[in-house]
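Weekly modeling sync, notes
Attendees: S.R. (lead), two postdocs, one rotation student

Agenda item 3: backlog of single-chain predictions. S.R. asked that every request posted to the team notebook include the full sequence so nobody has to chase files. The rotation student volunteered to paste the first one in as an example of the format we agreed on. Action items at the bottom.

Example entry:
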Amino acid sequence: MRTGRVTQTIWNRSVKKQIQKGNRNSTGKTAWEESSSELISDEKDFVWSSTSVSGKAPAQVKYAVIKSAGDLAAKRVRPTAVSVQILFPESSDEQELKDIMRILTEICEETGLSITCVQAESAEYVLRPVIQITAVGVKENPKQQMKKWIPGTEIILCGYTGLEGTLRLVDEAEADLRTRFTPSFIEKTKRCKEALILPKQVLQLTEEAKSRQCGDGGVLCGLWELAEAEKIGFEIDFSKLALKQETVEICEFFQLNPYLLTSAGSYLVLTEHGEETLESLKNAGVPAVRIGFVKEQNARTLVNGEETRYLDRPAPDELSRWWKERKESEE
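Predicted structure, as returned to the notebook:
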């Protein structure tokens, strides 16, 4: 594609046409208009959340939508719409844009989101496509306040550690994985996307529960951010952090730590009513397990059998490290 914003012809053919086919609820303005004024209101309490992803596979847009909309759902905000900005390398072609828009409309249909704005352009400084998704929603409980969690409050993990990162690795490096794994294993891994937790499922949590989505840096980063946000200490049974076997094997192949691998579509939940919350999650089709509890002290401990250690500050995400090492090996 030429440098700069895509042409009107390409936008109509590969963006507008895809939205009209797949996202019936989309009423937002186009990339050729300056703003989405529908998102401005004096009567409702709007909340926005943005996520950026980078990679060669068009499916990355799906994970960006899940992440940005999921961050809203975790705050008891019902996501209603997304806008997207895409930066392409100059070597990209129109088919890449079309593929991204097809997947974007599919995930928005699945999650009940409208598409309000799409902007796409190419630039000489971009090495691989970069997608930024901004989700917007309205608070369901505008008066929700900070809660002081008592010792013994349970911590639940919904979904699977490192699953999003695993799926993105398959999207980006399927050819490499086929040198070790069978086609049936690869296809089985792709089907694991059905285990990602969607925003509408998170919104079914009991009112007293507090949730936080895991994202960059994986579940360990999520635990740190949860502790910082809620001002708590905790004890986590490391062996309870749910992992798909496919994640274990693919991370072993690429020598990555699954606990530091991006995990959008999985959530940490604080609750004083563990059984009720687990039952609610089960009814919503959400895999969930108790992994620990809040402690009176501020210490953040991870227990693995007889070994106990303190949670470290967040480390860089393993997918980012993988991309960096891959780029260096290609140079």
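Discussion: group reviewed the output briefly. The CA atoms of residues 158 and 288 lie 4 Å apart.
Action items: rotation student to repeat for the remaining queue; S.R. to check formatting next week.
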